[in-house]
Design goal:
This protein is α/β, with parallel strands linked by helices. It has four domains: 222 residues, 3-Layer(aba) Sandwich (Rossmann fold); 72 residues, no CATH class; 163 residues, no CATH class; 45 residues. 35% of the residues lie in helices and 15% in strands. The protein contains 21 helices and 20 strands. It is globular.
């Protein structure tokens, strides 16, 4: 009977813990006085304090759709910040879902804060480093809720903020009608999502001292699209002075010329197939206002600017997104980070970063994962079939790993090595690079996870925020050796926090001294477990020239057409347009194969 009672007590305690985590209660300890009103959060039971769903801007709805964010309206009383806000509107990415399913809410400009456990009387004496997380998701997917940074707060004594921003067509839209009807210069921008991030950073500057954070020591960090946006914020004049360090995890510097983002495909300067004018054509056809593209273009050109803007603003979100083309786990095809001359320069970021006077020059970490592209190839029927419709099986392992190697090295060259070389010359001693190599996942359900994924895209996020941080793959990055996993995770947390504190990731006496990028010798740190080669510095570096040479000489490519196709996929349909050279392509013997004859790898 005693054992039964103990068991019942344990079950009750477990049930209470689960209920607490699912329904946290406001704590007087968390009362904070913000510029817009008082807010209260909760004690998370793991040693951190948390505030979820604090508004940092007015809802971008109605007349504020496709306008710069407006200040949040002050509130009366005490706001209970106990639950994550809705994600910003997005389309579920699964291509087999018919029809499109839209989730999220336009009222989504909220942020979350985690701190160590501080008593109210301690706050004024604190000046803790602040880290602001920008989530990934191809700029069309995701939200702030999967990130759980309590370990940064508890173990590293850091204040962490995670934010949400408008996604896809709602976050980026470039059209003359919007510019011509904009009441201000910022409203005429094409980069509303980047301005959301600026507004969140302004909120941090105004309010973070109330949480024990140092407004003059803010680090922005993001992964994938979040890292694309970190690079963009480095170039955005509106973000100047709002952050002091930056970390870009698996990012690239790609920005889109405004003409490509908005022009028709048959203009003298052609737009992309999914440009915003072409997308308006699709909506006009869907709404039976035109029978085909030709009629839609005539109708669009015949509409007054204000009428066209009202037509678009009055659309419910599900109708606005009704014409998107899904791209598997990449969300849908659209344009982001546009060279509008307002938020982003007209020039490429590689050009901008060559002059420290032209961007927000701050200490920077940038890196990528060794097997980035396996994450995407693993969901492509071209490379992987699914037994019984569920269990992935690589069709041709040799081909799978060769293609994944090309595109993962492309990511490393375009997103890390080439920009690090340029940035190092602009700000020597302040650029740190890494490669993430860990791949020790166990076989699950007969699937060799290491072979399928390896050190794949997004896997390093799990080491910072926990095993459910990659929300689309809740069992991603489970470890064969939990102790080894935890050791690497703790080391990475320390490097990231040290960098946030001082601008030097090894300042706290890390496992290995992480030296800044240099022209020769060991340029980057490698993150791997002690069961493999461990954390170490390396001089292994792949540049675009190396990749092109490998492609020219690869004996596994059997025909000239195949070689030209892979060249196009690597450098034309690439993570950046900076390295495509039409004359070089012709010299390779590819003149007979126009780039438009091929499609992107994914």
């Amino acid at each position: 009977m005693k054992k039964i009672l103990v068991g019942i007590l344990l079950l009750c305690l477990l049930g209470a813990a689960v209920a607490f985590l699912l329904n946290p209660r406001a704590s007087e300890l968390t009362l904070r006085h913000l510029a817009s009103g008082d807010v209260v959060g909760y004690e998370d039971g793991r040693g951190a304090l948390a505030w979820l769903g604090i508004p940092f801007a007015s809802p971008p709805v109605g007349e504020l759709r496709w306008r710069a964010p407006r200040p949040v309206e002050p509130w009366d009383g005490i706001l209970e910040a106990l639950a994550h806000s809705s994600m910003c509107p997005q389309v579920l990415p699964f291509s087999w879902l018919k029809p499109l399913i839209t989730i999220g809410d336009e009222d989504c400009l909220y942020l979350n804060v985690w701190t160590p456990r501080l008593d109210p009387e301690e706050i004024a004496a604190q000046a803790l480093p602040v880290m602001v997380w920008i989530h990934g998701g191809a700029n069309t997917l995701g939200g702030s809720s999967p990130a759980d940074p309590y370990r940064f707060a508890v173990e590293e004594n850091v204040v962490v903020v995670s934010l949400q921003y408008r996604l896809g067509l709602l976050g980026w839209f470039s059209h003359p009608a919007l510019r011509n009807t904009a009441p201000s210069k910022l409203d005429a921008s094409s980069n509303f999502a980047l301005l959301d991030m600026v507004a969140a950073l302004q909120w941090v500057k105004q309010n973070i001292a109330q949480f024990g954070g140092d407004r003059d020591n803010v680090t922005i960090f993001g992964q994938s699209a979040g890292a694309f946006n970190v690079f963009a914020l480095l170039a955005a004049p509106q973000a100047n002075g709002l952050f002091h360090k930056a970390i870009a995890q698996s990012g690239t510097l790609n920005t889109i010329p405004q003409a490509q983002a908005e022009n028709y495909i048959d203009d003298a300067v052609p737009g992309l197939p999914y440009s915003f004018r072409e997308y308006v054509n699709k909506l006009l056809i869907i709404d039976s206002l035109a029978d085909d593209r030709s009629q839609a273009r005539d109708a669009q050109e015949g509409m007054e600017d204000q009428a066209l803007v009202e037509y678009l603003r009055n659309k419910p979100v599900k109708d606005l997104l009704a014409g998107v083309d899904r791209k598997g786990n990449l969300g849908y095809s659209t344009v982001s980070n546009i060279r509008d001359g307002i938020v982003l320069p007209r020039r490429s970021l590689m050009e901008v970063f060559s002059d420290p006077e032209q961007y927000n020059s701050v200490p920077l970490i940038l890196g990528s994962n060794r097997d980035e592209y396996r994450f995407f190839l693993a969901s492509s029927p071209r490379f992987v079939d699914r037994r019984f419709g569920l269990f992935p099986h690589i069709r041709d392992p040799g081909y799978y790993h060769r293609i994944a190697g090309y595109f993962s090295d492309q990511w490393q060259a375009i997103g890390v090595n080439e920009p690090a070389r340029v940035l190092h010359r602009s700000q020597p001693g302040e650029v740190y690079a890494y490669r993430f190599d860990w791949s020790e996942q166990p076989t699950r359900w007969g699937i060799e996870m290491d072979d399928l994924y390896g050190a794949s895209h997004g896997i390093e996020v799990v080491f910072l925020f926990g095993p459910d941080a990659v929300s689309t793959l809740p069992r991603y990055a489970r470890a064969s050796d939990p102790d080894s996993w935890e050791e690497l995770s703790s080391a990475m947390l320390a490097y990231w926090a040290n960098f946030a504190r001082t601008g030097d990731p090894a300042s706290g006496g890390g496992v290995v001294a992480w030296a800044p990028w240099r022209e020769e010798g060991a340029r980057k740190i490698v993150f791997d477990s002690r069961r493999a080669k461990g954390i170490r510095m390396t001089d292994e570096t792949v540049y675009i020239a190396d990749l092109k040479k490998r492609l020219r000489e690869d004996p596994a490519i059997k025909t000239q057409r195949d070689r030209c196709e892979l060249h196009v996929q690597l450098f034309y349909y690439a993570l950046s347009s900076d390295f495509w050279d039409e004359e070089e392509y012709a010299r390779l013997g590819c003149a007979a194969f126009p780039p438009g004859e091929f499609s992107a790898m994914l």
